[in-house]
């Protein structure tokens, strides 16, 4: 009986210790690395296409590979710090050549925090210039010039089963790592588009791209759901900010 009690106590303490380490290290990407859904067809160890794979599959793989590479050029990792500890993280996208970065509100909420944007082996200090909790959007500003820009486009039709790719960057130790995983549209309502994909904590703010290479928004993780922050909401949010700046 005493042995069972000690085992139960040990399990509980072990769980608390694991949770503490998880939040202290701030490295969620490493914990979920094996859950990535990679594009088909897979490559073998010699980076060669298997003889049994069809030419069409190879074309599909090359297309997605190029799409992911193109997206990685203007995506960043975002980190939010409080008292020298990472409390939030996610992905961001350059939306102006002079350093505006759009990300999810959940990755970069306003407050007494420090914000970092990691891009191209550089770390930039950032600050929040606009935010919208309801739409789950934050706009950060860094001091930089001649940056590549992400263009978000409204999808003409979003239907259940539509094939998508989610891609972005997370920080693995001190190195930026590009990730990608497949997604499908689960269902669409008047105000929300729900995605069907593997849940990973680093998906927040990651680009969502269609099979015709349109960036239709970024990922929101709320209420146990993986949803889409639409291009129309992002563009409207950005236009409001830019219009206000022109009026100053």
Notes on the protein architecture:
A hairpin with a 2-residue loop joins strand 1 and strand 2. This protein is an alpha+beta fold and 248 residues long. The chain has helices at 2-25, 28-31, 55-72, 231-247; strands at residues 75-82, 85-94, 100-103, 114-119, 122-132, 137-141, 163-172, 175-188, 193-196, 207-210, 215-222, 225-230. A six-stranded antiparallel β-barrel has the order 1-2-3-6-5-4. Strands 9-8-7-10-11-12 form a six-stranded antiparallel β-sheet.
The span between the termini is 73 Å
What structural category arises from helix and sheet content? alpha+beta
Taken from the alpha-carbon principal axes, the silhouette is globular
Average pLDDT, to the nearest integer?
80
Q: What is the name of the CATH topology of one domain?
A: Thrombin, subunit H
H/I helix tally:
4
Oligomeric state of shown chains: single chain
Q: Please indicate the percent range of residues in DSSP E strands (runs of 2 or more).
A: 35-45%
Short description:
The chain is an alpha+beta fold and about 250 residues long.
Secondary structure topology:
Layout: H1 2-25, H2 28-31, H3 55-72, E1 75-82, E2 85-94, E3 100-103, E4 114-119, E5 122-132, E6 137-141, E7 163-172, E8 175-188, E9 193-196, E10 207-210, E11 215-222, E12 225-230, H4 231-247
Antiparallel strand pairs: 1-2, 1-4, 2-3, 3-6, 4-5, 5-6, 7-8, 7-10, 8-9, 10-11, 11-12
